[in-house]
Specification:
16 strands, membrane, TRPM, Transient receptor potential cation channel, subfamily M, member 2, ligand-gated calcium channel activity, calcium channel
Length: 1278
Amino acid sequence: MQAGKAEVGYTPSIPSLTLSVGCCSKLLSLCPPSQRYAAASWFRDNIKKKECLLFSEGKKEGFCQCGYPRSLHEEAALKPAGGAGQSWDRHQHTHEVPTDAFGEVVFGGLGQKTSKYARVSIDTTPEVLYKLLTEQWGLTPPNLLISVTGGAKNFYLRARLKSMFHRGLIKVAKTTGAWIMTGGSHAGVMKYVGQAVRDQALSSRSTHGQMVAIGMASWGAIHNRQALGLHLARYSMDVQGQGRLTCLDDNHSHFLLVDDGTHGRYGVEIELRSRLEKLISQKPLGNSGEIGLKIPVVCVVLDGGPGTLNTIFNAMLNGTPCVILEGSGRIADVIAQVAGWPLARVTIALIHQLMSKFFGSEYNTFSALKIIEWTKKIQDIIRMSHLLTVFRISEEQHGELDVAILLALLKVSRNQETGARDSWQRQLELAVAWNRVDIAETEIFTEESQWKSRDLEQAMFSSLTGLKPEFVRLLLENGVSLGRVLAQDDALCDLYNHLPGCFFLSQTVRRVHRGARSGPQGLFVRGRAAPDHGARISMSHVSEEVRHLLGSFTEHIYPSKGVSNEGRDEYSITVSLDPGTDLFLWAVLQNNRELAQIGWEQCKDCMCAALAASKILKKMAEEVKDAEETEQMMELANIYEKHAIGVFSECHSCDEERAQKLLIRVSPSWGRTTCIRLALEADDKGFVAHHGVQMLLTQIWCGELAVENPLWRVFLSMVFFPLIFTGFLGFSTKQLQPLRGCSRLASLYGSPLVKFYWNILSYFGFLFLFAVVLMVDFQSAPSWLEVLLYIWLATLVCEEVRQLFHDPDGFGFSKKAKIYISDLWNILDVLSILLFIIGLAFRLTTELFYAGKILLCIDYIVFCLRLMAIFTISKTLGPKIIIVKRMVMDLFFFMFLLSIWVVAYGVAKQGILIHNEGRLDWILRGAVYEPYLIIFGNVPTNIDNAEFDIESCTIDGSNPLKPKCPLLNDHQMPAFPPWLTIFMLCVYLLFANILLLNLLIAIFNYTFQVVHDNTDSIWKFQRYELIKEYHTRPAAPPPLILFSHLYLLIRQALLCRPAHKKVELLQAEEEELLSWEALMKDNYLLSTRQEQSQSIERRINDTYLLMFDLQCVLYSLLLVSPPIPSLLAAESEPPGAGSGEGEREEAGFHVKARLFSYPGAKGPRFPVPEEMVPWEVTFGSYDPPTYDPEESEDCLDGIITDNLTELISNVLFLFLPDPLSRNPGGRTGLIGRGALPQLGANPVLELVLTRNQDRSALEFLAVWDQFQESWALPGVSS
């Protein structure tokens, strides 16, 4: 054929279909040339097409028996003599040549849909086609293959069945990662599959989750196939002009066009499609593990004729399950009609009858022999009932088509000849691969399946590597041991090597490669993230990266134990104290919210884990460049901060002492750090601002002094310290023994609170001394006061140096210096000290004496500003200082806008008024200073001629004390136009005074409103830094602090005293504390779920209130109409008329339920007299109090207070079931559920111990209640 000649000029520049996973959706023209050349070379070597070798004229003149005309045959095919009339055979008279049709096809119309295609020979091996799909086209191997077959033309689905088919096919393909294989044409069932793919593509936002629909069609039966010779083809669907041929469906994603060298023949692809499906069914499932599962294949049948019956029969012989859609027509309905019947009833006559019913006029073309053959096949199909599933819309056992498809595969798995345990495991692995938790819950985890923990471990690992949180939760609920899963060899390391592409993985891979270049310990990553390097991540790499994210103050979470002989890091098999912590950290590092929540629920040290997650996520959010990913990380970080707050709230409300111990205990699982430290490093202001944390900080602030001490007593004791020995000042009650003698004195002056106030007094003394020296005693030779000032400042410098080098957390000098400089108050300290040193140097010289004094005066301002730091501890002034700091930042931005107007107006004014001013100071005065003063109301007089005085200025600018006169005219008056300068001044005042100043006020107001809500938490967070500073500060204030510095120097440098070590809990105490914390976490999770459910209850309550209003309207209608006896029977009866009233009189009303005091209630009951107890009696003044310790909306008594409301309630009882929940015994004087667990009956099971020794009397055990002074059963109050 002529097409074959095109292969002679085959060049490397042909675009290729070889795309990586990341660029599957791009056109081939965007691929690199080397990639296109490699793809073209692969296609030329592996993919062939068929060509006719012998022109044998058929019935139609000029056309070969292959279907192609003479003009499309090569010359060699026309030469053999006697070709005409010979029997043409495709096996003998065709040969293979490299294909010339592959690439991408762009369908015309709206959307410009693009698909991949290739023309392949019918003799192509299935292995080559599978490589084409997975390697060249980049498709991920499927977890399920759905082969859809059925009617090709004149096929119509009813609306309901069509909707269920679309919905089921989309769901099963999306959840399982399935491939869908069809005939690929725009007709029949293939068209409906394409529409389902289109619907899914329209509903999906991303391209990564698109369905894979592979169409295998006959090349010779495709209409407009001449357009597919190009490698970037544009295909037009001409359904009207296709004739006997068919068009490709534009909704399929891939096409394999099977060529056998013929034209116009259908069904060419069936054989190759069958072989390809069989090959795929023999490929291992991606997560099958040790079970050895293969990719399951299912055949879905809609409508169809005799050819479809053969397809079903052959598929079932190969062990492929088939799902028949009843109601789709023809052969599908015939099989569905007899499915489940005894074979004796499936007769030839019955098949004749059903064929006639469902095939219509087409039945007349069937021969009796064919009917008999089809009857036999149908009987064999029915006999293989484990492979046959009929989806009936009328039945609810399947529900949806996707469930029917998956259940059909599970049914096959159950009937395979394997053990029961292997069968259940196979089904579970299939459900995990499909990510169908609903199937697993209903079909696998049943009473029949007795699961053991070890049987679920492989499924658990598959769920983790597949990132399937719902399955992870389901398996944990069914008893899988997370510790055993992670304790397997390299299990946790494999999880990190199977991480999807994420920020943490990219950072870790860089760390691996850096380690490989720096030393022999190069362990590389092999996985999805780095397929180009055969590299593997070790746990030491993970530990290093986690320590980088947490901070250098932590230790390695997974400490390395050296390098083994195989060249890889060894670490403990039990890699941490808690497998839940390992799972939680692994999920947090990949920013997976669902898995992280499951892992956190399994953590023992949950509060520390939540704070560590907040720190890690915020650190990653700072380093990641993707804005959307940053937002997700920050959102997840805030969630875990709320979790930490919730758990700590539960702990603090239960036991304050234990809760505070949780804050300061060292966590072995998280780098041997504390919760409070993690919260501070993570900038979790909400957690630090918690009342319990602030109580701990207050206790640290007071030291061993009692928190309840008034400040005036502390001040008096600071001055007159003997008062502490008289009991004047209280000390902490946590001491095992009372403090005596020197211990009390050390506790007083060692308290951070006392240190703070001594330093305040010292600082005020320093400022007073500084002011006296500057204003009174600043002589050429330093006086003794000035020398004292210098000594005082030297002690301040020593303290700042001590703070800079004091590193109890092990940060290192570089990071400690960064932390020191990041504090605004430290910057002011450094600035004030530098200015003082420079001013002192100038002051000691004769030439710069006065300049030195000026610098010292300016430095005094900085020292005074530093005074604001002492007010940060104040609960009143501290938040205000934060607001001031934020407003200062706004002021800087405002000054930038203001400077534009000031300079613009000032330069223009100066240029108009003054001609060629050469004095710089007067230029700045006229261009900047005067316009700035105008804002504050100082309007200049030189902008017009009204107040001009030539004596007040100098004409040539020779007088440095006078401004230069403006340009004068002949009359010795200013020559500038006054109307222009006045107009400019008005415009300037309009924008500068009115617009910009009001803008500044609005900015300040907005900042105040925004910051004011958070100032309390910000202040509480920053309060810690001040407490920490004074907790480690020497007791003596400056200048006496110099002696403390000498003592510390001798102690640490000369005596080499060890640094302070963190106090750790004993193992038993640690386990007890963590168990209690886990219990509090469960309470928090339970309350959280209850809050979520209460939101629904709140909606129900709103609906109830709406119904109540409607009933009130109904009552208003009843007032204007005659009373209905059935509705108002209770109101019309007089008291005592009914039998119930007489029974109540005999029995008497409740008495104890009307006692004034109710246990736990704040006030007494509302008094209810005996005759007012019945609800039938009107009690207009009845206004009982409410008592409900849990703030429930249930009512124990009722809320009816008058006849109107009582009548409304009677009406409501006819429409709503017990809406007011009144006490059936009558009024009690109290509203609410009280201490009862629930409304209505509260049954209690009591244990009664009895004996009958002499059979004369039955004895029971009772105890004497001293408080009630009565006998009672054990454990029961009288």
